[in-house]
Design a protein that fits this description.
The protein has 420 residues and is of the alpha/beta class. It has helices at 12-17, 22-25, 84-102, 118-130, 142-149, 161-174, 183-191, 223-227, 248-257, 275-285, 299-305, 319-326, 339-342, 357-369, 371-388, 391-412, 415-418, and strands at residues 2-6, 35-40, 59-64, 67-71, 109-113, 134-138, 177-180, 199-201, 234-239, 264-269, 291-295, 311-314, 331-334, 350-352. It has 2 domains: 2-208 and 390-418, Glycogen Phosphorylase B (Rossmann fold), CATH 3.40.50; 215-388, Rossmann fold, CATH 3.40.50.2000. A hairpin with a 2-residue loop joins strand 3 and strand 4 (67-71). The longest helix has 22 residues, at 391-412. It is globular, with a radius of gyration of 22 Å.
Length: 420
């Protein structure tokens, strides 16, 4: 069997540069799939409008014999850059025809989309052309995020939150299988029309960089890595894309409100479009000299630096929360998305009410002022994450999910297609 995955998290070069390839290559489930094709429909979307690299033909990267990355540009022709919508549509139509041609003779194929929005539309279209089961993942709760931000998660594609929500409902109702990480994701999928019996828990522990699983005390780091966090005082951190939906501004506000912040440093791992506005907010709050924007950090370096932190504040960290837990860090988190699955108040950390900046600050102070108790919860968080995200166990569970979908696929085919 082969697997075709539509995703828009990272282009291939970024996966390589930041040691994130496990995020993509783990999808073969230890050889369950002979080949995994990872498709990014607009890999150059972040490039400058006038950059020639933003435009062009489809690019294919043969990472290995069984891992192939296919990337379309945001626009097909540089000379059409002043007509971005037309240019984008030409690029996407070309991608669809390319995939139909590439898999024209392929029978042993499953199609998976990593969100019920644009990637879902592409996956749904190809699955209908190929008469295959439609698999879609939803790794968060877009409905609650939209209520907070008031804007679509994919504003370049959807002009309004209503249009984006309509697309999600349309695709989730028609999905043969919906993959979710936790109960919050499950409830969202069912609320938006997915059949409960077709929603499967599909945690992503096997997609985490392996060094995060090493005992924190055994993770060594170089002097240059140490220099990144050599400032005096308590070391507080968050790991996040710097985008509006990740609520990193609440991290800064909570840090400012902490009594212990005057003796602390805040390290922000990650980058994004909100970096400048967050730096401005840090200045307005009078804490700019204690905020350190480290940018996108290689996963190996991140795994080595996290155990040197004293506390993590998590408004909305997603997969990174598991990485923090595996580092044995004391955690304070909002009670949203995957957080309640990992953080149990008084056991593996402290959960506070969503968007309650004051409560997050008070919980952060408690952790720093009670290091023995914080250490106990950090150790418990690591133990819990090791069991919940055990890669071998998750691979077995995920193979079972896909085995059932393969059976469904062959039940749909005309008898002459699979008779010996």
């Amino acid at each position: 069997m082969k697997l075709l995955v539509f995703q828009s998290a990272y282009p291939y070069k970024v996966l390589c540069e930041r040691n994130l390839l496990d995020f993509a290559t783990s999808k073969d489930l230890g050889g369950f799939f002979d080949t995994v094709y990872t498709v990014h429909a607009a890999a150059t979307v972040e490039f400058n409008f006038n950059s020639r690299e933003r435009y062009g033909r489809i690019t294919t990267y043969n990472h290995s014999s069984n891992q192939i990355f296919i990337e379309a540009k945001f626009g097909r022709y540089w000379h059409l850059r002043k007509l971005p919508l037309l240019n984008f549509m030409i690029s996407q139509i070309g991608l669809i025809f390319y995939l139909v041609w590439l898999f024209r003779e392929e029978k042993d194929l499953l199609i998976r989309a990593e969100d019920p929005r644009y990637n879902g539309l592409l996956g749904f279209l190809l699955s209908r052309v190929k008469r295959l089961p439609f698999i879609v993942g939803t790794w968060g709760n877009p409905d609650s995020i939209r209520r907070y931000t008031g804007v679509p998660l994919q504003p370049r594609v959807f002009r309004s939150t209503n249009a984006e929500a309509f697309c999600e409902r349309y695709l989730l109702r028609r999905a043969d299988c919906v993959l979710v990480q936790n109960e919050d994701n499950f409830n969202y999928a069912v609320l938006f029309g997915a059949k409960a019996e077709q929603v499967k828990y599909f945690r992503l522990g096997n997609a985490i960089y392996p060094e995060h699983f090493i005992e924190p005390e055994l993770r060594t780091y170089s002097p240059s890595e140490q220099a990144k966090i050599s400032h005096k005082g308590y070391k507080v951190c968050t790991i996040s894309r710097l985008e509006n939906l990740k609520i990193v501004d609440d991290t800064l506000k909570s840090f400012k409100a902490m009594k212990s912040s005057i003796d602390s440093q805040l390290y922000i791992f990650g980058d994004g479009s909100q970096r400048d506005s967050l730096m401005k907010l840090a200045s307005e709050l009078g804490i700019a000299d204690r905020i350190h924007f480290l940018g996108n950090v290689d996963q190996q370096i991140l795994a080595r630096l996290l155990p040197r932190m004293d506390l993590v504040l998590s408004p909305s960290m997603g997969r990174a929360l598991t990485e923090a837990a595996l580092a044995g860090l004391p955690i304070v988190a909002y009670d949203t998305d995957c957080h309640p699955e990992i953080v149990k108040t008084g056991q593996t950390g402290i959960l506070v009410k969503y968007l309650d900046v004051k409560a997050m600050a008070e919980a952060g102070d408690f952790m720093l002022e009670n290091p023995i108790e914080a250490r106990r919860m950090g150790i418990a968080a690591r133990d819990w994450a090791l069991d919940l995200m055990n890669p071998e166990k998750l691979i077995r569970e995920q193979r079972q999910i896909f085995s059932e979908l393969i059976k469904m696929k062959y039940r749909r085919l005309p008898k002459e297609r699979y008779q010996v």
